[in-house]
Amino acid sequence: MDLVGINGYFHLFDDFLHHPSIESGMSVLSKDERAIVLEIADFLEAACAATPDFTRAEFIESGWPQQIAPKARDARTLFLRRGLFSEEFDESEPGQPIVVPAGR
User: Fold this and answer.
1) Region 73-99: what's the mean pLDDT?
2) Which of 2, 8, 29, 45 fits 33 for a cystine, CB–CB 3.0-4.6 Å?
3) What is the distance between the alpha carbons of residues 65 and 93, in angstroms, rounded to a whole number?
4) Is residue 93 within a helix (H) or strand (E), and if so which, with residue range?
5) At 91, is the secondary structure helix, strand, or coil?
6) Residue 79 in 3-state DSSP?
7) Is the confidence at residue 51, as pLDDT, over 70?
8) Would you state the pLDDT for residue 97?
9) How far is it, in rounded angstroms, from Cα 9 to Cα 4?
10) Rounded to whole angstroms, how far apart are CA atoms 103 and 101?
11) Geometric angle at alpha carbon 80, from 36 and 70, rounded to 5°
12) Which residues have a Cβ under 8 Å from the Cβ of 28 and sit 6 or more positions away?
């Protein structure tokens, strides 16, 4: 919140993740990653709706950060476990190389 402000805290998440693509399974995220990202999106949407026109201090006092934090930590762990996509070959799912039949 210190870098982007309270409104940026909510909107920056949506700026980086295209919600319709994630819901439809058309994103580069794995099934587990999609599920946890959508859970966090639901938390952020509920927090934003529950505390309209809030200040940073009011948001912190509302308890929402404490509710969001465990799921955010779980997401971070999940994404770090997967790691980065390969720079050398295409992957069908993150961490799963595409198998190309011989002779192609």
Assistant:
1) 76
2) 29
3) 31
4) strand 91-93
5) strand
6) helix
7) yes
8) 63
9) 6
10) 6
11) 45
12) 85, 94
- Distance separating alpha carbons of residues 58 and 28, to the nearest angstrom: 35
> If you count them, how many residues does the chain have?
104
Mean pLDDT rounded to a whole number for the chain: 79
> Environment class of residue 27 by beta-carbon count within 10 Å: exposed (0-12), middle (13-18) or buried (19+)?
middle
Token couple for 69: 């934090």
User: How many Cα atoms occupy the beta-carbon half-sphere of 60 within 13 Å?
Assistant: 7
28-44 pLDDT tens trace = 778 898 889 889 988 88
Res. 74: pLDDT tops 90 = yes
Residue 31 has what pLDDT? Answer: 86
The Cα–Cα gap between 70 and 81 comes to 17
Q: 5, 8, 65, 6: which is closest to 40 by C-alpha? A: 65
Question: Would you state the structure tokens that stand for residue 24, as one six-digit string?
Answer: 């439809």
